[in-house]
Design brief:
28 strands; four-stranded antiparallel sheet; globular; about 35% strand
Length: about 475
């Protein structure tokens, strides 16, 4: 799901070393011990089919093909020992088989989503490049599917914009789900227009989608950040078809999925949402929607530093009458509610302790810790029979015992968060991106899940240079976005 880059200005990217450009051009692949399994796992984020869930991270400011800010994406493969820097593949538009070409300020990897789009058992990665110039259309935007296989991601297919003259920034938001209820995986794509496009399942590497549907959302179109800034998918009414959530400057609107295309259901929270997350937190059979409100309006007295609202699903879909708000003011949540913390700016759902109830990771990139302004912090809120709660919440930053690094100003720890079980122990691991680490080089941390929740014991971290991306002076902002966050 997408997230706008409104938090701070980015410094210009400087051209990287020839060796780094060559590595990106070739799509660097570190050999995987033993290779992938003969029968792919079918997991939506297992790109090499070996049965372990993988982590996809964007570096939209990376140099690729010698072009500044051309952008790249990195997959770190899961294994019995979890995620590491060594097991990775880096892909850009200069990689063999990937459509297009690396161009200055394309920012390939600005948006990411994943799913098995061609139903071959391997997860595929969808990459949004909303700032790509398409022909003479400045910032027309593009969407590329990178195909999974036994060696990981390889080659790609462009999803053509059906309404290029009617909007800009095609691919500024993405969501994957079965929106038509036919058992096939579909792709939803947003832009600066009201029109949201559903590309229907039955994708092929040569022809793309099997068909497409358009629906016009109840949102404002126009110059960014208007249009469908954010998309999410979830079956809130448990009817077998995923519903679509569209986030915009006008509010957050839920559309019920079905064979004829999405139809309006309800509005879930007014105003601009920093992030969405979807999971069945109370395990009642209906997905629930979490909306992060990271920038609080002057008339909003809910919480000064941001908050999250969970709207629970039911037979009629998202039930706005059944909701709960959590912030740093909520009992059990560590920290203090302070203005402009940006609590709720990033969200991810997953079961960190193996109790079968999904939990919620919440990022606050502007959280200041001691003298380190905007160092960033991440919380994990627990799910249970009554839904999300502040009881037992955990808090992590670079000053937490066992977490590598140190809190520094403008690190933006929590710029992306992700929860997935990368070592198949039945508990989701917490991945955290900090795009501001080391003057916008960026870095990623992975903390393991355990029966007691997320633990910093055995935590790993790695920066842009560890995954073949030029760092110092280039501002690759590795860790700015993660697929599934």
């Amino acid at each position: 799901m997408s997230r706008p880059h409104h938090k701070r200005s980015r410094r210009p990217v400087v051209l990287g070393a020839t060796a780094v450009a060559a590595a990106l051009a070739g799509g660097l692949l570190i050999a995987l011990p033993g290779g992938a399994s003969a029968a792919p796992s079918g997991l939506a984020d297992d790109f090499n089919g070996d049965g372990y869930r993988d982590l996809a991270t964007g570096a939209p400011g990376a140099v690729a093909g010698g072009k500044a800010k051309a952008g790249a994406v990195v997959v770190n493969y899961g294994s019995a020992s979890g995620v590491s820097a060594a097991r990775h593949k880096t892909t850009s538009q200069s990689s063999s088989g990937v459509p297009g070409a690396s161009e200055t300020s394309d920012r390939f990897g600005t948006e990411l989503a994943h799913g098995d789009l061609n139903h071959d058992g391997y997860g595929d990665l969808v990459v949004g490049t909303p700032q790509e110039d398409v022909g003479g259309d400045a910032d027309g935007g593009s969407v590329t599917i990178l195909w999974g296989g036994s060696s990981g991601l390889s080659g790609g297919t462009t999803i053509s914009d059906p309404n290029a003259s009617g909007h800009d920034r095609f691919g500024q938001s993405l969501a994957v789900g079965d929106f038509t209820g036919d058992g096939r995986t579909d792709l939803a794509v947003g832009s600066t227009g009201k029109d949201v496009w559903i590309f229907k399942g039955g994708f092929t590497k040569s022809g793309g989608a099997a068909g497409k549907l358009r629906f016009d959302a109840q949102i404002e179109s126009g110059a960014y950040p208007r249009g469908a800034v954010r998309l999410a998918a979830g079956d809130f009414d448990d009817d077998g078809a995923d519903d679509v959530v569209v986030g915009s400057s006008a509010g957050n609107f839920v559309y019920r999925g079905g064979a004829a295309g999405p139809t309006p259901q309800t509005e879930a929270g007014e105003g601009y949402a920093g992030a969405f997350a979807v999971a069945d937190f109370d395990r009642d059979g209906h997905d629930d929607l979490v909306v992060g409100t990271d920038f609080v309006g002057v008339l909003d007295q809910t919480a000064k530093g941001g908050y999250v609202t969970v709207f629970y699903g039911g037979a009629a879909g998202v039930d706005t009458a059944r909701s709960a708000v959590l912030s740093q003011d909520t009992a059990g949540v560590p920290g203090t509610d302070e203005s402009d913390d940006s609590f709720g700016g990033t969200l991810a759902a997953g079961d960190v302790d193996g109790d079968r109830y999904p939990d919620l990771a919440v990022g606050a990139v502007f959280e200041s810790i001691g003298s380190a302004t905007h160092a960033g912090n991440v919380w994990v809120l627990r799910g249970g029979p009554s839904g999300l709660t502040g009881t037992g919440a955990q808090s992590f930053n670079q000053g937490t015992a066992g977490v590598p690094g140190a809190n520094e100003s403008s690190d933006l720890f929590g710029d992306a968060v992700h929860l997935a079980d990368h070592n198949k122990d039945g508990r989701a691991d917490l991945s955290v991106g900090a795009a501001g680490e080391n003057s916008d080089d960026g870095a990623v941390w992975v903390l393991r899940g355990s029966t007691g929740g997320v633990t910093a014991t055995g935590a790993v971290s790695f920066g842009a240079s560890s995954v073949g991306i030029g760092a110092s002076g280039n501002d690759p902002v590795f860790g700015d976005v993660m697929s599934g966050s």
